[in-house]
Amino acid sequence: MFRNLFRRKEGRRDAQLRKRWQAAGCPDVRGRVARAKDGPNGPDCEAAMIPMRKLEHAGVHRARNQMCGLMGSSDAQDQEESGFLSRSFGNAKSEAKSFILQASSTGDLVDRCNHVIQEEWVAGKLDLPGNVYRMAAYGKLFFFDAETSQLFDISRICGCCLIWLFQVFGAPTLFLAYAYGMGVSCDKVINWRQGFMTFSDWKVLGTTKLLAVVAIAIFCLNGVFVIMDERRSWEKMDRMFNYLNQRTSTWLRGEGFLFLDAFTNCWVILWCCLATIVVIGPADNPRDVMFDSLGLLFLYNLDDISGDLGFLNHDDWPGQRLAWIDEEMAAVNWPQDTVHAEEDADHPKIGAKRIIVLGYWLTTVVCASFVFILPFISAATSYSVTTVEAGSCTNEWR
Question: Which of 29, 55, 288, 308 has the fewest CB atoms found within 10 Å of its own CB?
């Protein structure tokens, strides 16, 4: 649509120039490549027909649009053409933004983004990270696609719901099972009072203990980085959702999934970091350290787009186009409107947003403290003497 608009404008411009050339006595030539007929010193009126093109061929001078005294200097014409192109692309972006703001739902919004936002506009932009909950917020999870079977869509929906349940209950179950014996046999429970601050495992399992301590520290430090990155992307998502709800005629549903996204991320990362001292710490060989670390990493990356499970892939998530909307529209409050800006400031969910941001910061602080506390606990605990023997467990440490 925008390409055709540009071509029509360029055609009208060439028609006007052709009339001026004919009035000046220049020949009306419609070919795309100008050929000077009067030798290298003769006038080349054809060059003015092709804006921003330099004609070079043997025996002919470099033709410029200033010939016949019609267009002035070539620098002035280049500047004029550059301004014309900038205005055309600017109009195209404005029309695309207006088209996006006519969305009637979050799913319609994503479809409009894929339709009007061109690839060159998003080139070089970083994706907004996507996951199961953000897909649900933008209407691309709980829906039935006419181009696929219903069984495929039902499998996707059920699979994503089970991912949430597995993440919410998986990491706490790991910690509570081995620390307090919930759901495991007695011989798997750790009796902390018997082996804490003994350091006896370092004599036999020194290399493995060192590797486990380093793995726990790296895991918790990665949790700090991930939660900070999630907070930044969540704030962009929330800002964009509030902006769209103020500018569109229909209230866009799905913002609740963003709050579920924030809660689940903080919950899973906290429990996964805590579980490292009962999953990675007791490892008695380097192989167990590696595989246990990867298992926990798999758990809190399970909901990401293009993760290890195939329910969602990168093509389902328009991360770059949503980033374009955030940068070109939400971040600059396009179009500039003080009324909507005041409404955004008085938005009733501002308090909920502050709670979520505070939760992200608290999770960051706790995970940062885990970087030092949990490796020390793992290093100071001799797990080989803290595991209760089979059949001898009591309520004393459960």
Answer: 308
For residues 188 and 324, membership in a common domain is answered with yes
Classify residue 198 by burial, with Cβ atoms within 10 Å: 0-12, 13-18, 19+.
Answer: middle
Which of 264, 274, 279, 272 has the alpha carbon at shortest distance from 299?
272
User: What tens digit of pLDDT does each residue of 284-331 get?
Assistant: 889 999 999 999 988 888 888 876 777 877 777 888 899 899 888 888
**What is the CB neighbour count within 10 angstroms for residue 194?**
14
In a domain, 54, yes or no: yes
Task: Assess whether 167 and 25 both reside in one domain.
Answer: no
Domain containing 65 equals 2-75
User: Amino acid identity, residue 389?
Assistant: E
Give 146-163 pLDDT, tens digit per residue. 777 888 889 889 999 999
Prior bond of 348 cis (ω within 30°)? no
CA distance 280 to 265: 21
User: Exposed (0-12), middle (13-18) or buried (19+): which is 80, by Cβ within 10 Å?
Assistant: middle
Q: What pTM did the predictor assign?
A: 0.70
Residue 17 CA to residue 24 CA, distance in Å, equals 11
Count of the separate structural domains present in the chain: 2
Tokens 């195939």 sit on residue: 310
Of 55, 75, 95, which residue constitutes the final position of a domain?
Answer: 75
Residue 143 forms part of a structural domain: no
For residue 112, being part of any structural domain is answered with: no
